[in-house]
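so the lab meeting is tmrw and i was supposed to have these ready like two days ago... anyway. pasting both below. for each one the top line is the aa sequence and the line under it is the structure tokens. i havent really looked at them closely yet so no promises
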Amino acid sequence: MTEQQTPVLTPETSPTSAPSPTAPPKKKRKKKHLKGIITLVILLAILAGGGYLLWRFVLQPPPVEQGEIYAVPASIGTIQSVVQGSGNAKAKESAAITLTEGGTVREVFVNPGDVVTAGQPLYTIYSEAAEKAVSDAQEKVSNLNRELSKLQEQVSDLVVKAPFAGKLMNVQTFTPDQDVSSGAEVTTLVNDKKLKLSLYFSYAYENSIAVGQSVSVNIPAVMKDFSGKVEKINKVSYISPEGAVHFEVVVVFDNPGTLTAGMDASVAITLADGTSAYPYASGKTEYYETRTITTKASGPVVSSNLLNYANVTAGQTLLTLGSDTLNDQITAKQDEIATAQKALEDAQKALANFNAVAPIDGTVTACTLTVGSEVKSGDTVIIISNSTTMLVTITVDDRNISFIKPGNTVDLDWNGSTYIGTVTSIDMSKAESSNGMTNYPVTLTVDNMDGSLVDGAWVNYSFVTSQSDDCVLIPGSAVKSVLDKDGNPQTVVFIKADSKPENTLELDLPEVEPGQKRTLPTEEDGYYPVAVETGISDTQNVEIKSGVEEGMEVFVNYTVTESSSSW
């Protein structure tokens, strides 16, 4: 084996003194300069390559490939405009029983889930405080009513009225604001519609004359007879100068309007045997009734309606006195009674809550009572809901509110189950505006006899606002909003044509920047923009009322292609 040896360099012996430096050879200097130039060139090449890469990947737009035009023919069909949303369902009727006093639960007759009818007993609770509150309130109302009645009687006493129909006599004079005391004489009222006679007959006719028996009244002054009757018999002992004993007979007859009191008169009574009975002596006519009218209260004169010999009717006002104090007292007392009555009603309601009956037909949705437990004021102990009819509240915006009216039906869906809602009210007064749109609450009534729709459910709704039949339809994305060359907004559709149509619009379209795809076709593609009038639309199509006819190819968009690079 041959060993490899490492060569050893032997250092030269250094001279004793260093020689003076000398210039390098000329050939070496040229090589060094050439090497620097080469290095500089390499650096420049690297920089140029980096700049190209920066331009290629950052500054230069990636190459794009325009997608193919996707177009469809306009067709004839039917389109509907449908409004959709959601709303909250609740029972049409609901009643919560809340206690206003505390007490002890004695009996509970229902449980949650029970179906009850109005008037059905629910529970009984004993509350001494509630019972006392009712009795105290009743007593207070009664006392106040008695006090009011007395005040009203005093007010009524300020008005002097005729107690019966008749004629005024001996009228007193009264002036406005004159102070009149209680008990002051006002007038004398006589009933001259009838007249009466008091005559005496011999006791020999005691059994022949009876009350109600007809009589003939003779008035010598007018030389006429008048029909009357016996009104009253008084078994007195009137003794004549001749020593005969007589009893009193009171006879009444109608006044034809020409007779008065104080006229001489006599009567003849036809007896059962056909003979006539006559009084011991004739008498004088009297008014059937005479009464002196006086005031029952004091006060200033407000008005007077008094005239001597004036005929008046029963209840006619003769004199009116005033009293501000009494009027104020009555008003204050009426206010007190109203407050007390409200307190009584509240107390009665509170007591009724302790022996409650179902206020409505429905299902008991909550019952917190247990026998023997203590309850306090403010506790809601029973909730009853009538869910056979549900109310669903939805909101409809101002774009569609004109399409819905009371009586319209709305399709509803909840958890896959469908229902029909009927519009019962549109509350325009509770409209709310936000984001430039106004929403109106609409109430629907839903038949829920099977109880499948629960209280509080959120249901989806939809209804058709309008429909067009046999109309021209195109995809909604085919309708473009652009500006014409004058800067006016236009609604257009790009249609395919072999030559430029007469109704082609001149548009102001922005130029496509390098590296960008076109979004709209050009005339080179064979597509031309025409103005259209649109109608209703749904989620896919739109109705074209003018501008496009059936069968015309309309531009929808470009198909999507991926960018490619040539590396």
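ok protien two:
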Amino acid sequence: MTDDPVGYAAREGRRAHPRQGHEAPTHHTPPGRWADRLVIILACVVIFAIASHLELFERIFHFTRQHEEWQLDELVTLLMVGGLGLCVYSFRQARKLQREIGRRRDAEEEAERLALHDVLTGLPNRRQLIRAGRRLLARARRSGTTVAALYIDLDRFKPVNDLLGHHAGDQVLQEVGNRLKGLVREGDVVARLGGDEFALLAEIDEADGAARLARRVVQALRESMTIGDRQVVIGGSVGIALFPNDTQDGETLLQCADTAMYRAKAAGRGGFRFFEVGMDTAQRQRAQLEAELREGIARGEVVPYFQPLVDLSNGRPRRFEVLARWHHPWRGLIMPADFVPLAEDAGLIGELTLAIMRSAFTTAAAWPAPACIAVNLSALQLKDPGLAQVVLELLRETGLDPGRLELEVTESAVADNLDLAKETMDTLKAKGVSIALDDFGTGYSSLSNLRALPFDRIKIDRSFVTDLNENSDSGKLVAAIIRLGHSLGLTTTAEGIEDPEVAAALLRLGCNEGQGWLYGKAVPARDANAMMQAMTEAPLQGAGRA
């Protein structure tokens, strides 16, 4: 987009830059100038015609002749020419002022248009949507009709931006805007609210009309788009709120539709949901918990817990995995499954993990070598190009030897951006940090990734371990993963061990390490040191029973 909105320079009559070279620039008089000159000429003709009709010139001539002693010739000539010039000057200034007023009016109209419309799609923005919504709701009150608000969020838009670039993403948004405009009637409103979110306000006769419109929206967004030489398929989730059934206020109506949209996404995407009162309550509770989490991180309420990973052959600890726990002042102890997804959605996961790592590094630095810790990294963190430097700076700050730190990543997190993940891992590995592949077998398992990325260990997901002795397929799969790890020179760790018989079976298969409630649950820092000391002195239950 240029800085000259909609030909503003053209309306100001700016001249084009002269061509480069020896050819002299050709000056063209703008059409408006010729019109001004023609009006001036006509004005002069009219003035002379009136003066002639009134015999004004003859009367002035006779008067000067009768009073020659006054020497009025030069004065009369000056007054006539000066008066005519003053008329011409006044007329030109009036025309100039009129043009300036026109330019300012055009500029104000353009500024108003830009303030009320999305520049990319040309659709009304949120501000204009609320204005139009007030008018639409007022008309619906008078006529007794229903207004449906549809809040639309694209489902697979981010991969388009990441893989094809922002230009392709802009084209997708423009195409979505065109498709939505094609679904509504005159008087209905389609708006872009920002990012990949759109809204639609439409008068309907009944709730079934809103459902039919939502189905059409979902279907329109499912159809493929041609972006450059690529076929792109996205989709959308739709939340629906009705006036006057759900609320009497336009802004609240949009908020209700937004709440219903999140429920539609949670239900599996690519569908629609109507707003219900319980949704609003859940949304407010979620917003309240998010605010409490933000404050809790700052106050140090989210702390590291430590769960042992042991050598299956002797039951002695090799490292502790760091797990987050939230000590809420009045909700009590909150487990990660209840607040980590919230932190990711709210953009707090980086701040949360940073606080956990700083506390865990400080605790582990006081342990006797070679006690190590393992910390999980989220997919969002792996997309941060500065992650490696943050981790290394924390190690320097807390005094923890990099060789006593292991970072665990999931297969899906690595697959999101393989090149950046490899760059981050290589930087950390060069300083002595170990890297483990977590939940192996449940995500985007790839032998090429295992070979290309600098992993030291793979962790076998608990879903394969818990029924190892009862399910022959699980046993075969676990055995294959262990053989694969050994062939690549990787240590293997089994998660979710709760039964001594499962631990013995894993040891027979050649698994190196185990983790699970059989060896201990996650404990706070004050108990981790005592646990480590006890495990060092005597093997834990289930160890060394091949």
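from a quick look at the 2nd one: Confidence is low (pLDDT under 50) at residues 1-29, 542-546. The first helix runs from residue 8 to 11. will dig more after coffe
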